[in-house]
Amino acid sequence: MQYPAVILKSGKERSLRRFHLWVFSGAIKKIMGKPVDGDIVEVFDNDNNYLATGHYQKGSITVRIFSFMQRAIDEDFWTEKITNAVDARRNLGFLNNEETTVFRLIHGEGDNLPGLIADYYNGVVVLQAHSAGMFRHLELFAKIFRNISGLKVTGVLSKSSSTIHQKDDSIEGDKLLWGEASLSHVTEYGIRFDVDHITGQKTGFFIDQRENRKLVGQYSKDKLVANVFGYTGGFSAFALQGGAKEVNTVDISAKAVEMSNHIMKNNFGEDVKHKGVTMDAFEFFKQSKGKYGVIVLDPPAFAKHRDAHSNAMKAYARINKMAFEALQPGGILFTFSCSQVITREDFRKAVFTGAAQTGRTVRILHQLTQPADHPVNIYHPETEYLKGLVLMVD
Question: Which structural domain range is residue 55 located in?
Fold first, then answer.
């Protein structure tokens, strides 16, 4: 099959020769053919040498690369790519692990499948397309997942309405592709969570914080703990498992707080030392000076685009300053950024700014990132999006 060709300007092929997975619009000299959003295209240098194959989409990132080999892009190709990603999780011990039944199967560029996320929830596979090209293939991907050996699949759901913008209103972004997939009962290091894929954030749960949640438990014994931007209380459950004196889950969503109360009682009984607080995080901190022994600060992305960078840096500095002020002497702050456009150095600078404004002594105990099922592609540094610090405050 002959795919439309994208010809790069002289010198603009260097990033692809270093296996970066994005072609930006400014690098393109001309396009042969008339591709539309989601079409497969082949990319060539200015001397007509083949470089890579990917999905075309109008915008700053014009081509998302999924192959550096010139070959037919058919069902066998996608089966090979998806099976390779699943086998990586199999080798890491995620498949058939009764203690932890929720993990990521495909992490976009981290698995050389840009535009595609696949999360596993105890049999339910939730697919999320971030490009028109991957969206077109979701029915095929559902079939491939159902047929992978050793992967128990009871349902496949597309949850792409918030990540893919289709001009055709008849195209459903959120859609059951096969089986049953509305609610999952999962465990993470033995703690039970009910996950609502339809109304929940992302694909239903923040899987990327699994190892960091476990670490919170190790610092929580006999402490008063605040889990701020706490959603349904993932960090709270691990703090309680670690022996916290009391845990407060703080979120502006009353529904999320209600779910956090349910999860804590489901795991630890009716008399669990947990209180859900429906409140804006900034307002909560104004009322909490010097109160807590451990604070978890995991806000939503303050910057989703480069033009929001400056305001995001100020917001991270401000919220961290308030968190520092809410800690007792010797307190521990777990603070995170999931903003892809905020680098590790940016985040550390923002936290430094917040600390300096309090005048308190702050020690870095750990520098955190995303877990192994969210791999960072060494050729594509943008895949390292989750940054975290564990800080001791005097």
Answer: 5-67
